[in-house]
């Protein structure tokens, strides 16, 4: 190869690498939060069902499911996931910080996307502590939206999260000894910024992070509502409140002997004519089924 051409190509490649590793940080003041969409309101999602795109005015007027407001230190691993760009503008999901450099979220939220920003210390979205751009999006190789399978993605932050162990702290992962546990009848906490159902024109994300605690149901019971539930799913009752639109990717945690750790990542829920109707379990990705993949593709070390 011509030496000059080789130098030129190396320059182009270096520029591309730098662009990936150092994406521009997002200014929250530049976002019209009233038009940020849930996954179900994006043009891409609606196109799957042959539905026409929604205008920003329709988004403001069409927003339609109980929880408890979280204090900044209650759920320090909660991460807001802002997906921006494209014809639909910005959309929003939830996620969970698993180390200073990595965040887990639902593959359904970020599949096919290239520009994502993570919000940390954001229990109050009107006073976000940090917005950190994402330098790499890794979708689980077997993810299928159609089959509701392997709905998991790893986001690499462009810089380390400023962990203070009060308002920002990685969640503890399950141990390998937890893999055989079904967690049925355990109490689980789900946290996110999705719809609450308290007002018809509710923006996404909601201003305050909310959480709900309910019982893990067996997959056999869950299959009464969703026939495609499999061993890689874990379901949680919604009798006391639960996830809704905008909570995809939200962390589901349990407590054992004072240790709080991650068992699920919200994948999908039942949406009826009244929004996210209660009475049917919420379906989550079962984290114990993916410990090897998470460890191989992040800096997280799974304990025995």
From TrEMBL:
Signal peptide (from-to): 1-19
UniProt record similarity statement: Belongs to the peptidase S1 family. CLIP subfamily.
InterPro entries from the UniProt entry: CLIP_Serine_Protease (IPR051333), Peptidase_S1_PA (IPR009003), Peptidase_S1_PA_chymotrypsin (IPR043504), Peptidase_S1A (IPR001314), Trypsin_dom (IPR001254)
Peptidase S1 domain residues: 64-299
Top-level division of the source organism's lineage: Eukaryota
Record flagged with keyword Signal: yes
UniProt keyword annotations, A-Z: Signal
Pfam families assigned: Trypsin
Protein name: Peptidase S1 domain-containing protein
